[in-house]
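Bug #77: duplicate submission created two jobs. Keeping one. Sequence:
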Amino acid sequence: MTPRYFAGFLKVLLISALMCAPTVAQELGRTPWGQPNLQGVWDFRTITPMERPANLVDQEFLTDEEAANLDEAARSRIQDLAARPAQRTEIDPSGNVDRGIDGAPGSYNDFWFDRGTSVIATRRTSLVVDPADGRVPGLTAGARQRRDAMAEARKDTGAHEPTPGGWVEDLGPNGLQVRCITGFNSGPPMTPGGYNNNFQLFQTPDTVVLYNEMNHNPRVVPLDGRPEVGLRQWNGESRGYWDGDTLVIETGNFLRETSFMRGGASADLVLTERFTRESANTLRYRVTVKDPTTWTSAWTYEIPMQLNPDPIFEYACHEGNYSMAVILQGARDKEAAAGR
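Kept job's structure:
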């Protein structure tokens, strides 16, 4: 972040703090300048999957009993893992260091994780709402070829290791996360992940800021109608406007893939995010995804985010990834041992 950009971000935060009157009516209704008040820390963790599970192919919504059973199973899993005696992690048969044996998380102790313990309030069986089958559309032929080629090149390679013979740019679908460039749930767009499923929204009359807890990325979005400049960035270039009481943010001009769908999208990704305050404690987040390089059609998912009374905490990723030298050295040693 450049000094000028950071100074502008601080200015937005200061103006937001000064202009937000502390009355209950304004807090839950509108800002002093008349816009719907969307400000606050919003929690988007949930155990509802992005796509509808195969065993629920014809079921759009869970019953109350099914939802309660899933919530209880999530809580029981956490309790079970917490009660287990300490043991050294053994990598699962696939070689993934993030998965241990017997359902254990692998590289971290389970208390680091915060995936949530409940399905979304609507009880949908998937976050995807369009197409109607709750599934992400199929890949284009080109996208399938690229993914097959990457899978073949990275055969028997761990998720945090470079492709054999590769360097910093060859860390695979997890590369941006391993290098702490983007958070695995911040995208954009935002998707529930293993932990740090929070973002804070700030408003001024002509700007909003989306500040993700992971990796503490601020996305400054003008609302004043200024044209795009065409500068490609990790988080894309965003412009926003109001559609009635809904904040709409359109984002394109991505530098390359982001952490969205584990690096599955391309630089051609175009997003339309819609934020609607449905109640004092609920912010509906609806995203339409268009990437003709990757998917055969556009698709939409939706998350009812919950107001979090706690503040955003520092997410201290390994800044600039000082362990990169160790990752690369380990890869070279592994290759030498294998005679590559």
